[in-house]
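cron nightly-structures :: item 1 of 1
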Amino acid sequence: PPPPTPTTTGRSSGHSGPSDSSSSSGPSSSPTTVPATAPNGGQGGPGPSGGGSGGDRGHEGSGPQSTTVPRAPEVHTYGSAGGTVTVRLAHGQLQLLDDSAAGGYRASVENAQPDDIEVRFDSAQGQVRWRIRVRVDHDGQLTHEVTQS
């Protein structure tokens, strides 16, 4: 039989042709699933492959196994008049890489959790406050808010 064909999982685009995405040529934003082994352990014929005693028979008849390849880490920078925040998203968790206040502002990290980062930039006179908040939603997607008060 022919070797298994790798498959891709993720959001459907509503058609079955090749992707017509015009975004960057970088890594896909959806995880990719590829078969870990050929059906029946790469052996021809129906049923489980291999003989002998022992071994893992917990997957008999369940079809090919697959492995999910994680997305590459992403680095994002968000800015305001008060300053900038740079975060890294890897394995569904955020990491604050840098916060840099603009001239006349000072930065304070209000929250630096794996799913929620918030940095505030206060003007030297205390009259203006910028807030940059970056979160990971329940689907693992980044959201951000830049507000002034």
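cron nightly-structures :: done
The longest strand covers residues 93-101.
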